[in-house]
Amino acid sequence: MGIRAKLTVAALAMAAMAGAHAGEIYGGIGLPGLMLGYAQPLNERFTLRADVATLGSRNVTRTENSISYSGSIDTRRIGAFADWFVMQGGFRATGGLTFNKFGLDLSAQTAAGQTITIDGTPYTQGGRLDVNIKFPNTTPYVGIGYGHHAGKGLSFVWDLGASVGRATVKGTLGGALAAAVPQAKLDAELAEIRDGVGKIRLLPQASVALSYKF
User: Where are the domains of the chain?
Assistant: First the structure.
C-alpha cells in the first residue's frame, strides 16, 4: 500500500468514528519539518489523529571514511497516532506508526588519475561510488505531548518522541572502478558506513503546532 493510500485509510477510519466530539485541524513546524494534520477525539481520554510532515529534498555534502560525497537527503513522513490523556487536561502519551520516506543518496565521483581510497586501498582508475542510506518505510512511534484533547477553539500543541527503526546501507560502483574494485573491498567499505549508521535507531520528533477544534 502506498503512502498516500495509507493516509487515506487513516483519515477514513477517523471520519467513521467521528460523533460526539468535533474534529480538529492542526499545523506546525519542527522535526521532521512542516506539518499538517487532523485529529478526532473519541472521548475525554482518547484521540486518534493523522498528519503529514516534510522538509522536502535538500542537497548535502559529507565525508565518510575519508571519501567526500555529494548528494541529496529526502525527509517525509505520514503518521497515524493514538493519544491517551493520562490525567485531566492536555498532557498525553502517544503511540502509533509512521510511514517514512527518509533517505540519503550520496555519490563520490573521480576522474582518471584522481585517487579514491576504498577500504584502505587507493584507486586512480576514475569512476563513481554511490551509497544509499535508507530508514525503514514503516516504523513504530512512541512519545509524549500536550494538546489534541476534546474541546473547541484555538489551542497550542507540542510533541516529543521518536520513530524506532534502523537504516540500511547499499552501494554500487560505476565506471572503471566497477571493474577495478573487488566486491570484498566494496563490502568492507559499506560495512564501515553501516557500523556508524547502525548506531542511529531513532528518528526524533520535536514539534510545536497550533490547532483549531470545530
Answer: 3-213
Instruction: Give the H or E element holding residue 13.
Output: helix 3-17
Q: Which three cell numbers stand for residue 135?
A: 530508514
- Model pLDDT, residue 18: 47
On the question of pLDDT at 35 being above 50, the answer is: yes
CA 54, CA 102: separation in Å to the nearest integer? 10
Q: Is 104 exposed, middle or buried (0-12, 13-18, 19+ CB in 10 A)?
A: buried
Per-residue model confidence as pLDDT tens digits over 110-144: 998 899 999 999 999 999 999 999 999 999 999 99
pLDDT of residue 49: 96
Task: Give me the residues paired with residue 121 across strands.
Answer: 118
What pTM was computed for the model? 0.80
**Pairing mode, strands 24-31 and 116-118:** unpaired
Helix (H) and strand (E) counts in the chain: 3, 12
Which residue do the cell numbers 485529529 mark? 39
- Return the CATH class of domain 3-213: mainly beta
